[in-house]
Fold this sequence. Notes:
This protein is an alpha+beta fold. The chain contains 14 helices and 22 strands. The chain has a 7-stranded mixed β-sheet with strand order 4-12-11-10-7-5-6. The protein binds 4'-deoxy-4'-aminopyridoxal-5'-phosphate.
Amino acid sequence: xxxxxxxxxxxxxxxxxxxxxxxxxxxxxxxxxxxxxxxxxxxxxxxxxxxxxxxxxxxxxxxxxxxxxxxxxxxxxxxxxxxxxxxxxxxxxxxxxxxxxxxxxxxxxxxxxxxxxxxxxxxxxxxxxxxxxxxxxxxxxxxxxxxxxxxxxxxxxxxxxxxxxxxxxxxxxxxxxxxxxxxxxxxxxxxxxxxxxxxxxxxxxxxxxxxxxxxxxxxxxxxxxxxxxxxxxxxxxxxxxxxxxxxxxxxxxxxxxxxxxxxxxxxxxxxxxxxxxxxxxxxxxxxxxxxxxxxxxxxxxxxxxxxxxxxxxxxxxxxxxxxxxxxxxxxxxxxxxxxxxxxxxxxxxxxxxxxxxxxxxxxxxxxxxxxxxxxxxxxxxxxxxxxxxxxxxxxxxxxxxxxxxxxxxxxxxxxxxxxxxxxxxxxxxxxxxxxxxxxxxxxxxxxxxxxxxxxxxxxxxxxxxxxxxxxxxxxxxxxxxxxxxxxxxxxxxxxxxxxxxxxxxxxxxx
Length: 510
Ligand code: PMP
């Protein structure tokens, strides 16, 4: 474990700067224009342990990206390294397609041990090609085969991966086979209400679409959802809403697919994020942390859905023995050491501290999260208010308030109530009824998202030796996904550096 205060990001003079600069230069010359994280993080990692990454330039960073939420135990945890070495030393074959091995047998046993018991009792597992997106494809194929129906229900803001079917189900897509439903979100609630009432309105909309014979939504093969939307900007679904989705789908024999690729293995403060609500999905999509930092993806599902034929979802690389061993060690370590509870406690503390910060800095629109998946949404304090992140022309009144919703998910926000229809900067009045007394409470109209501020904060974090990434509809949400193993001191260092970065950015933009 690194000592607190490590990762200051200072260059050590002993390192040869031309070597790593050459590596970065060759990367940008030779790699695809589609590369992602590498653009924002000009780092050449050469060593890593726990929360800390050391670059080829000798600088150290606190890594709150954690392989996009993969590293439940941080980098190179001793139990993971030991598990990998054991397989290597045993002489076991590294490539076995989908044949049975003792390593795979142990992984399946440990994984089933962690599942909601009502699913584990009747579970089947399909090992997929080693990426979350392939497991999403498998889940969609499974329910389409089992129901004989092509359509899928998916949510606004969803992210399920980059292959064709997963992309269709994601929020940016426009596909005729996917009916898009409102995902509950408090800060930019599409109904301007947020909280349990906003979520309930979304649930009613869902029910209406399914039961209205003229809704244009055919009976679907399944509903796919993330219990906390990660890439979509860290939106924890209220537990009550998740139970409503379970009830709505169960009543209509629609399989419910929980995509726990990012939320699994303790991240949200429960072993699986669905555990908070007690919901038992029909299918769970699992990847990232289950491979203990190596590539692994599976679906687990109720046995009566297992009606697809041999080879229905094949793939050469479904037998990664090292990943299974690393995954078994990770799952067991999280379970035995109560790391889900640790994530809940630490996450609540960090979110609380960031919410206090939000009171100081009007450019922090909202702080939200569950366990150690945390989002800080940057907004333009001078901007005009709107619901969708882009802003519309309103005058402003009222103040922000922090709150913890009934589900235990935490939020604080600087959304305000719009006072009146007003003449905007362009001089054109936009009719707006959000404060019409007939509505009762004025509707919430948050400040516009500030992607440029978010980029500035991310860069300022990097200068301070803190790695964070951005997410959300407008890439304006700073996302924190630290390992579940971090110490209290490390958690404090993360919050300090982020606070310092936000203060510096706020100072530089009066
Ligand atoms: N589902 C969710 C919820 C995810 O967060 C991701 C990746 N961020 C995926 C699916 C896709 O996983 P992969 O990148 O391994 O294909």
